[in-house]
Design a protein that fits this description.
By secondary structure, the protein is an alpha/beta fold. It has 14 helices and 17 strands.
């Protein structure tokens, strides 16, 4: 069933726009509450955006109108909300965040009582229930009193700190970029408690500067600071903390594919990779398959989106999966992508092997890849894009087993995402050029 409001990661858009506003947030909360059965506790967290508090109150008002009991967890990372849902036996979890988007945007995403994001079918049902909701006066205020529970932050910090032995990181200097987001209150606390000297970037959120030139989408400052301070590595989160990218001691950035490969190959060597399987998305480099297969494992691919990765992990009995964007899911620890858990797992491998990231990353030899994002005015079904589909088929025939083509619309932005992998950089760049030209025939590119 086609969804109108939900994308790959909740509902998202400019704050004050036609979707992300208090009136819609009230209706969405009420619809989600009805979907959840109209009873039980709901935990709500948010990132550091100035618009977050008002949207939390509006969502809570809708949930209350549906008969549920919302509780505010305050500012905390998305994975902490997922964990709190399970720990507290809540009927539903809500996070008000736009993840890696700029501060002018915001969004709303939901977790079921299992701590896992809702399925497409669940979200489609909530959208059906939206038609039965009504706007309420004063939704910018929300309930007169919204109970608060600040214990979730402390519980999250305590649980993360137990993943490595006490003082394991004594003598380590780590550059940490928290994107002026939710992890500014958690990740540095955990790393320092483990003994690390933390050099902070993006650690002064003011409601307007989340992801502004910092965080996992902007690793250049992280790389420069690692080199300037002589740190062992750099770690960067996105605004809500479910992503993590790294920088090695030489100032070179690692993406999610490199992180997943080194974790999977290390686990295979120890006999601890569940089902000998790593789950990645269709976006991940073919080199991941080659490296994991050579180490005795297998790679299974899902659609783009961390919840689709999780669904495939459950189907395959896998416990490790993620995306090249930096969503890393360690299911034995957390029910969703968790940037801090990913960081601690990488540190664990560094400690166990005694090797720096610049060496560990060499396990992945990437196929040449080129990507391009086209802003489009209106989407069309790809099957209706005659010139683009013909070009895709031609490229796939030419590349054969030595490459691949991926063309898809973003689930959160008005963009067409293009990817080509092949035997040489010249081949993939030429392929991207052909796709861009064909897309311009079928779509209005802006």
């Amino acid at each position: 069933m086609k969804r109108e409001y939900f994308g790959t990661d909740g509902v998202r858009g400019p704050y004050g726009g036609p979707v992300i506003n208090e009136a819609f947030a009230f209706r969405l909360g009420q619809a989600a509450g009805r979907w959840a059965g109209g009873r039980g506790r709901v935990v709500i967290g948010r990132d550091t955006r100035a618009s977050g508090e008002s949207l939390v109150r509006a969502v809570a008002a809708g949930l209350t109108a549906a008969g549920l009991e919302p509780v505010s967890l305050g500012v905390l990372p998305t994975p902490a909300v997922a964990g709190a849902v399970r720990a507290q036996g809540a009927a539903l979890g809500v996070v008000v965040t736009a993840s890696h988007n700029p501060a002018v945007d915001n969004g709303i995403k939901f977790f079921a009582g299992t701590g896992i994001k809702l399925t497409d079918a669940d979200e489609a049902r909530i959208e059906q229930l939206l038609s039965a909701t009504t706007e309420a006066a004063g939704v910018t205020v929300g309930p007169v009193t919204l109970p608060e529970d600040i214990s979730a932050v402390a519980d999250y910090i305590k649980a993360a700190g137990m993943l490595l032995p006490v003082q394991t990181l004594a003598g380590w200097k780590i550059v940490l970029d928290t994107a002026n987001g939710a992890t500014a209150l958690t990740s540095p606390v955990v790393l320092r408690a483990l003994g690390a000297e933390v050099v902070g970037i993006g650690d002064a959120p003011d409601g307007r500067n989340i992801n502004e030139g910092v965080g996992s989408e902007h690793p250049e400052k992280l790389a420069a600071k690692v080199l300037a301070t002589g740190a062992r590595l750099g770690i960067a989160h996105d605004g809500d903390g479910d992503r993590c990218i790294f920088c090695d001691e030489l100032g070179q950035v690692l993406d999610g594919d490199e992180v997943l490969t080194l974790l999977a190959v290390h686990a295979l060597g120890n006999g601890t990779l569940a089902a000998d399987t790593l789950v990645v998305t269709v976006q991940s480099n073919l080199g991941v398959d080659a490296a994991v297969t050579a180490a005795g494992g297998r790679v299974v691919r899902s659609a783009v989106g961390d919840r689709y990765v999780i669904e495939r992990m459950q189907a395959e009995g896998a416990r490790l999966g993620g995306e090249s964007s930096g969503h890393i899911i360690c299911a034995e620890i957390a029910p969703t992508g968790d940037g801090l858990v990913a960081a601690l797992k990488v540190l664990e491998v560094m400690i166990a092997t005694g090797r720096p990231l610049s060496e560990l990353r060499k396990v992945l030899k990437k196929f040449p890849q080129a990507t391009h994002n086209l802003k489009v005015r209106n989407r069309r079904e790809l099957a209706e894009c005659v010139a683009l589909m013909a070009t895709i088929r031609a490229l796939e025939n030419e590349l054969g087993s030595q490459g691949r083509v991926l063309v898809r619309f973003s689930g959160t932005e008005a963009k067409l995402r293009l990817l080509v992998e092949g035997s040489t950089l010249a081949v993939v760049q030429a392929g991207i050029g052909r796709l861009v030209t064909a897309a311009g025939v079928d779509l209005e590119v802006v």
